[in-house]
Amino acid sequence: MTQPLSATDYLARLVAFPTVSAVSNLAMADAIEAMVAPYGGRCRRFPNATGDKANLLVTFGPELPGGVLFSGHMDVVPCEGQDWTGDPWTLRHVDGRVIGRGATDMKGFLACCLAAMPAIAAAPLQRPVHFAFSYDEEVGCTGVGSMAEWIGASAMRPRLAVIGEPSNMELITAHKGGMIGWAHVKGVPGHSSQPDKYVNAVMIAAELVAEINRIRQDMKDGPRLDLFDPPYSTIQVNQIRGGLHGNIVAEDCAFFWEMRVVPGTDDREVFRRFSTYAAEVLEPAMKRISPEAGIRFDVMSRIPLLAPLGESGLEAELLGLLGQSAPRGVSYGTEAGIFAAAGIPSVVCGPGDIADAHQPDEGIAIAQLDACVAFLERLAGSCRG
Ligand SMILES: [Zn+2]
After folding, report:
1. E strand or H helix that includes residue 152
2. pLDDT tens-digit profile of 157-176?
3. For the domain 177-303, what is the CATH code?
């Protein structure tokens, strides 16, 4: 057995790989495979279509159902245009903190998993402990799906997945689900003295935005969960562009919409409501002027919501391990929703502060890393006899 390394030792090694989402993560996956091998970690890879990126699933102990899974993403956001005071890919120690791209979001958690390996490997495991390390989280959680679905459908489905996004080691048991995308309105251009002969894409888009605003008002009276702020679902349009000139009937208009839904609201139903309004209320009149006119929707990304754990006893177990009294909810999506959708009870709990993520001089307190390693070791202890 090799000399055990601390979480900061592992973090320094992981930060040295500039795994921004645009590039391959395979060199880092190779390095992690080499780190887990001496501890008996068995690796499975889930590559992307082009083979230049992969999820990495590491399993310790017997291949049985009911173990625990620790998950984090291997990709990081870029540093270009940010005011770093040192090399982002070289970990630095400053006043009880370590600084480097990904220190918080979220190579710090991956390093904690690796630092917990000696305790995991030394235990006589009756149930497996898994590390599930993903790619392409920072571009809409688009990488992890293949691995989450595989293990959720396998004969070793875990009883719990912990996604270690930065939460200051507080337990997060719920997050909103999200769907984002563009709406493109195609009109018919012409002189603005004859508006009835043409199709004004800006005016049609405005009607569709007004329908989305009605949905937003209805959401305030819809399902609620007080863990969230605000406790209800939301939908809005934050970007719109269209038209060419003040006296030409606008040919094109596009806007970007986003929704965040709470349990009890199905994001696909919400999407259906405004896309049906477009197809049944707005488009028939457009197509009477020209069959080329119409409205197209491009869904860019969808992250399933994370609902609270319910009556399983898991929540009490985790709060006990963490010494906390109540869980939290957040209004942004994580990969936990994807593991939950794959049938694995999932929570978010990880070291560091989300406010430090994506920042120049991204850093994390070493005390947070130590607290996380202790938590993971205690949780992995539940997989013993
Ligand atoms: Zn993250």
Report:
1. helix 145-153
2. 999 999 999 999 999 999 99
3. 3.30.70.360
